[in-house]
Amino acid sequence: MRCWVLISIVALSACAGTREPLVPAQDVPPSWQANEAVKPLPENWLATLHAPYLNEIVEQAVASNYDLKQRALQVEVANERGKLLRADRLPSLNVSLSGERFRPGGGFSLIAERYDASATLGFELDLWGKLSDAQRSASLDLAAEEMSYLDAERRLVAQVVSTTFNLISSAALQDLFNQRLDNLAEGLDVIEKGYRSGLNEALDVYLAQTTLEQERANVANQRQVSFEASTSLELLLAKYPDARTAVQSQLPELRPLPDIGLPSELLTRRPDIQQSWLTLLSADAALAAAHKDRFPSLDLTGSLRDTASAYSRLFDGGALGFSAAASLFQPLFQGGRLQALEAQARLRTEQAEQAYLQTVYAAFAEVENELSRAVSLEERFEAFLQAQVNAEAALRLATDQYQRGLVAFTTVLEAQRRAFDAQTTVVQLRNQLLQSRVALLLALGGNY
Fold first, then answer.
1. Looking at the whole model, is its pTM more than 0.90?
2. Residue 325: inside a domain, yes or no?
3. Secondary structure of the chain: what % helix, strand, coil (to 5)?
4. Is residue 378 a contact partner of residue 405, using CB atoms and an 8 Å limit?
5. Within a domain: residue 117?
6. What CATH code is carried by the domain that includes residue 199?
7. 156 pLDDT exceeds 90?
8. Is the residue at 338 inside a domain?
9. Distance, CA of 444 to CA of 269 (rounded, Å)
10. What is the Rg, in whole angstroms, of the alpha carbon atoms belonging to the chain?
């Protein structure tokens, strides 16, 4: 028997070991492929955007967002679940009181009374650490839920910032469309006057009218885009989505990329990676508890009882019944249920391990992709800035030549289209650069 117990202790201690991080050091590069910066990431990444008006919007979202409040309640549920498992390691005390009235045998008029009062104390000794493993698993689940809340909070902040930039960009595009619509309307008026004076052809009038109507359609479409951008932000702020929220500001100038730290720091900066790691540790502790379910359990019980013929005589100082017992329970045959539960717990642990690795390498991929995307967007932005300058100069030249009768009106329309497309693309790319910066800061982890 002693040998069997020693073998069991060795097996259980091997099952309950602490895991080391699963990502080998040689798999983590010393620096990012698209950036050689090695200085740590700023603690407040929201401040690196240099848009003070974001602070109030972010605070309102964090305080009011419905999804984030649900996450907070999930943390509370996990906390209560942990309390249940902590209770299993404490003694249980139950008190019962009962009474009855009855006729003794052979009597028809005599009515007797009897009252019973008892108290039972029970306690399970945690011989193999099964209860502590279950409690540890619950504590790790709680920590994982807390990390999940932090991750949800960070993603909410990033979504609020991105949506705010989308709203500002939509408003800027709508102003640009309205301005172009006014310019086209003025141009059409000039062309119609010239046609009535015999200076212009009917074709010029039709082309100008067509361009004007197309721009009216663009204005209507952009109005809807702005409406939806506003309601999206209001939904994040837990406000009624009536599109009355407007941000009276412009898109901030994009500053140089801040220091982004080392790839290895990502493992401790990102809450989703920490959540995945804690989930793996919890599954490992649950596996240890499932393994120990197959070993004996020792329960200690004690009870105190008193019986009296009247309620007032209970616990009146007379003799009380007392009992104490110890019971050893060893499961022998349950049709493979305990083995199946342990195998299931082991598979969950392996599943959590793969999920952790996927989360880690997906985080690395997010940072590398956003770093590369930032470089390509910057190149496109600089190219379109120059294209905008050239297109506006070409439009002025085409307008002047048309007024002198040197080119056809179609040349002016093409120059207008190119200039407008360049202006629109510059606004859109400025927004995309900011969106990419927010995505990169989110991927790098850290506090907002």
1. no
2. no
3. 65, 10, 25
4. no
5. no
6. 1.20.1600.10
7. yes
8. no
9. 7
10. 37
- 155 lies in some domain: yes
pLDDT of 9 reads 30
How far is the C-alpha of 22 from the C-alpha of 146, rounded, in Å?
Answer: 22
Nearest to 332 by CA among 281, 296, 288: 296
Distance of CA 97 to the CA centre of its chain: 51
6 pLDDT band (50/70/90 cuts)? Answer: very low
Tokens of 380: 């496109």
Grade residue 307 by pLDDT with cuts at 50, 70 and 90.
confident
Q: Range of 379's domain?
A: 18-92+127-294+347-444
Q: What is the pLDDT of residues 183-230, one digit of tens each?
A: 888 888 888 888 888 777 888 888 888 988 999 999 999 999 999 999
Q: Which pLDDT band, with edges at 50, 70 and 90, does 64 fall under?
A: very high
Sequence-distant (≥ 6) Cβ neighbours of residue 178 within 8 angstroms: 219
Task: Provide the domain count of the chain.
Answer: 1
Cα gap 19→14, rounded to integer Å: 11
Q: How far is CA 334 from CA 128, 341, 347, 368, 438, in A?
A: 20, 11, 21, 52, 55
